[in-house]
Amino acid sequence: MASASDIRRRIKSVKNIQQITKAMKMVAAARLRRAQERAIASRPYTQKVREVLASVAANARDASHPLLAVREVRQIGYLVLSADKGLAGAYSSNLIKEVLPQVRGKDNARLVTVGRKARDYFKRRGYTIDGEYTGFSERPSYQDAAALAQFLADKFATGEYDEIYLSYTHFYSPINQQPTTIKLLPVAEIGKGEEMPQTEYIFEPSANEVLSLLLPRYLETVIYGALLQSAASELGSRMTAMGSATDNAQELISKLTLNYNKVRQATITREISEIVGGAEALK
């Protein structure tokens, strides 16, 4: 059995860890409030952009644009939005589990990663990573989304990728996030198989010019919306994980304190017995 001094040291160590996890939970909760507002506010706009682009692309049959091109699929690109830091529960591992079945054993699958967790995981296992972006998983900006959109648009337009998918974590609540994958390009296949409203459009000055403006904005908007969803999901997962860690630390402290009291009581009882025994021996 451990001595009382050993148990005291362990209790102090656990209390120090509990202070850290409690502080991390509070920081994540403070950041989550803002991130959650942004994620929820962007959701209907992102969804509407996808619907409008799908409808416009379907009705602009005579228009030509590099992002509308449907080709034989030789190379597939995956944009994976993960976390830069750990201590967020199963957030990054759940996302990796979503991506793995789609890329495992495929020589034509290429990755563009956001966040260190996905980059490190796939790089260690020999997957092809064409681009890696770090440093903004918790606080993405529209400029970050625009840079990603430009990179992917160039890859698709030059024929390096024939299809592009986006894997991210959809935010529902601080304790409920769902990894998901959607198709980004080609735009002509967005909403395929879904009920889309049949609308006739009049393009001014021309369909090509309208699509040249809309398509890059579509990519930026959808990627930015996914970045916001992922940021809120990461902070929600971190807040939940640190809350659980704090509660577990408190439970461990209670058990250690009980054990410490038992050891101390046994020590006191033994010392009293020794004193009584010594007194009896002197009689």
UniProtKB/TrEMBL annotation:
GO terms for biological process: proton motive force-driven plasma membrane ATP synthesis. Produces ATP from ADP in the presence of a proton gradient across the membrane. The gamma chain is believed to be important in regulating ATPase activity and the flow of protons through the CF(0) complex. It is found in: Cell membrane; Membrane. GO terms for molecular function: ATP binding; hydrolase activity; proton-transporting ATP synthase activity, rotational mechanism. Pfam families: ATP-synt. F-type ATPases have 2 components, CF(1) - the catalytic core - and CF(0) - the membrane proton channel. CF(1) has five subunits: alpha(3), beta(3), gamma(1), delta(1), epsilon(1). CF(0) has three main subunits: a, b and c. It is a peripheral membrane protein. This is ATP synthase gamma chain. SUPFAM superfamilies: ATP synthase (F1-ATPase), gamma subunit. GO terms for cellular component: plasma membrane; proton-transporting ATP synthase complex. The keyword Cell membrane applies. It comes from the Bacteria. PANTHER family: ATP SYNTHASE GAMMA CHAIN, ATP SYNTHASE SUBUNIT GAMMA, MITOCHONDRIAL. It comes from Sporomusa ovata. Keywords: ATP synthesis, Cell membrane, CF(1), Hydrogen ion transport, Hydrolase, Ion transport, Membrane, Transport. Belongs to the ATPase gamma chain family.
